[in-house]
Structure formats: structure tokens, C-alpha cells
Amino acid sequence: MTGAAQTLRKLVTVITEAQLERDLIKEIEGCGALGYTISDARGRGDKGVRASHWGHSSNIRVEIACDTPLAEKILSRLQEKYYAHYAIVMWVQDVEVLRPDKFR
Amino acid sequence: MTGAAQTLRKLVTVITEAQLERDLIKEIEGCGALGYTISDARGRGDKGVRASHWGHSSNIRVEIACDTPLAEKILSRLQEKYYAHYAIVMWVQDVEVLRPDKFR
Amino acid sequence: MTGAAQTLRKLVTVITEAQLERDLIKEIEGCGALGYTISDARGRGDKGVRASHWGHSSNIRVEIACDTPLAEKILSRLQEKYYAHYAIVMWVQDVEVLRPDKFR
Question: Which class is B6-95 in CATH?
């Protein structure tokens, strides 16, 4: 892409239980993230059907576009805090962002 | 990324008609997927305005993070089964996942 | 991936204010996009808590899978039209699409 002011960033996606929303946001903001996007979701994870009541949005999908050190910090903190006891999956992708000053 | 236990996987995204949800999930699980995430969506596809009633979530957005052979199996099966008769689009991306044992 | 008829495309993701939906769609279609997917979202952007009323979907998440020239056209037009006055963030990723004739 040759568009204006594009820079490579990381996009962190977290799928987890809806009940964790407020707590998760505190963690993400505590890491220094300037923005995040949350959507309701449903599905099935490795813990089986626990989160798959049809038509019920018991999961959330959280996205954070940020630089690599912040992405690593977020991943480490969420892994430490939630992996043992909650249904959570996370993945990371490379993205080109416009207006990268928006993303630390 | 140098975070703990990251491994390259494929993220398959499927956008299709909401009425296909149960059937699609059966297909995806039949392929061997251990998890998937579904969100409600709306939009317009190549079949025109069919799915674009404003404010109405007539589409679903399904994500499956998995290894390459499983991604190919899912893509082939869904293509075979739905492409001729339904509004469906699919794309695949590389993602780094944490805890890759969660994703076959 | 070696699946049938896969081709590299760009996936443009736009996160912005829900009130812009109709106008944004006109712009995207005006650029020549054949399809797009919209989900409701909530979150926080660089303009602070403005869009983060808990449980309220005041944002939208719009995805367009398209070729590189169209992606650049969309990014430029949306940047020109909305960046000065609205909460909007955009990022671009490489994706492999099936049935690439669906995506200009």
C-alpha cells in the first residue's frame, strides 16, 4: 500500500467470556492501549460447548491495534491473568494503519 | 512477536447468510475444528442488496483459527456445499496464536 | 494455501461512529466496492471515552475485501472526508480470498 501515512502495527484479537469485559478493559488500558474495539460474539472454544448457547452473545471479541511492544505486553498480561481459569483465545496479525499516531 | 508459545496459524473468516448458522457449524465441526467465533453482521455482497436491510443482522461472520490443512479442508467443504446457492464469501489470513494447542 | 482459486486481496477494516453508517456506505459504494460487511461494536478511540458507553453499540466495524487500488481509493476518500471531524480508525491486511471474482 502506498496510501498516506501508513505504518505497520500489530492487531491483537481476544475472544473471551462477556463477563470479563470490564476487567479486561482495565487490563488493556493499564498496559497503555489508547483504543480498542469490542463486538459481541458467540461460539465454541476448546472448553467445549460452554459458550455456545444458540443466539446468545456470551462472548466478546476485542481488538487492539498497537505497536509490537504493547501487543506483547497485552498478550503476556492477559495470558497470565486469564488463561488458567477462563475461556480465552488470542491471536495477532500484522496490519497497516492510517494515522499511526493514533496507535501507540 | 516473541511472546510465549506463539505459532503461525490460519484465520478463516466466512461471511454468509444468518439462516445457515446451524448447518455451517455442523460442517465446520465435521471438518475437525475445535473452536469458532460467530458475530452478527449485515452488508452487501456480490448478489446485491439481498442482505442489506438497514439495521437488520441477516448475515453472520464466522472465524476459525486453525492449522493450514484444516483451513483448506473447511474452505473446500464450504465452497462445495454453499457457493452455488448461497451468498457466501471467505478469506484466509496468517495469524500468530497464543496457546496453539487450542487450535488443531 | 493451495485451495481452489485463491488470490491475494486487501481487507480494509474501518471502525467509526454508528451514525456515519449510511454515509460511509455511499462513499464505499461510490469508490466501486462490490461488497462490505458491517458489525456493531463499541470501544474507545483516541478521542477518549466518547464512544464507550457500556453495553451500547455506538460504533460500527466495516470490512471491505478488495484489490489494492480500490483499497487505496477507499482509504484516501474516507480519510479526506472523515478524519478531521469524526472518530475513525482504519487498517489494512493481506488476505487470500476464494472466488476472487467477487472482489474487484
Answer: alpha beta
